[in-house]
Amino acid sequence: MDAQVEAAAEATVLGTADIHRILAALPHRYPFLMVDRIIGIDGDRKAIGIKNVSANEPHFQGHFPENPVMPGVLILEGMAQTAGTICLLNRPEDGAPSLVYFMTIDKAKFRKPVVPGDVLEYHMTQMSKRRNMWWFRGEAKVDGQMVAEAEVGAMIAREGGK
Predict the structure, then answer these.
(1) Longest dimension (CA), the chain
(2) DSSP β-bridge partners for residue 151
(3) Whole-angstrom Cα distance, residue 37 to residue 154?
(4) How far is 65 from 107, CA to CA, in rounded Å?
């Protein structure tokens, strides 16, 4: 295999992030961590975040006890956490800890309820990037059907907001 073919094969390998890599990248912890695993990572360009929705999550105690529905804002947060994780995993290693700050939400639409037992997928695709800021289009899906969509923006800052 020549070097060009080998380099092309390596470039098409999509990465994954298990819960340990996500926890190392993000400051979020239970009960506010909205992504369990990330698959199909293509640099900071695209990825699919996975959230296993469980009846044991605290938001279902009040939203709604007799008919549990995952709050839409938490679906958006899961999209942002997926995008933020791949941005942080792909930043240059300069030794300084970084944080991702959610900046914008645009064109958010909710199409179907997400309920306990669902496996929620956040399909995130980079729309643009400038310096330390990224914009992504996200589609949340359950069993291949879109349940929500939005465009989200985020920025990376040094820990402490600098």
Answers:
(1) 61
(2) 106, 137
(3) 20
(4) 29
CA distances from 3 to 6, 10, 12, 14, 151 (A): 5, 10, 14, 19, 38
Q: How many CA atoms lie within 13 A of 35 on its CB side?
A: 34
Distance between alpha carbon 65 and the CA centroid of its chain, in Å? Answer: 27
Looking at the DSSP bridge assignments, the partners of residue 9 are none
- Residue 77's SS3 state is helix
Mind listing the pLDDT tens digit of every residue in the chain (162 residues)? 455 545 445 555 789 999 999 999 999 999 999 999 999 999 999 999 999 999 999 999 999 989 999 999 999 999 999 999 999 998 876 656 688 899 999 999 999 999 999 999 999 999 999 988 999 999 999 999 999 999 999 998 877 655
Whole-prediction pTM:
0.89
Which of the 8 DSSP states describes residue 14?
Answer: P
Structural domains in the chain, sorted by start? 15-158 (3.10.129.10)
Q: Which residues are catalytic?
A: 63
Other beta carbons less than 10 A from residue 100's beta carbon: 24
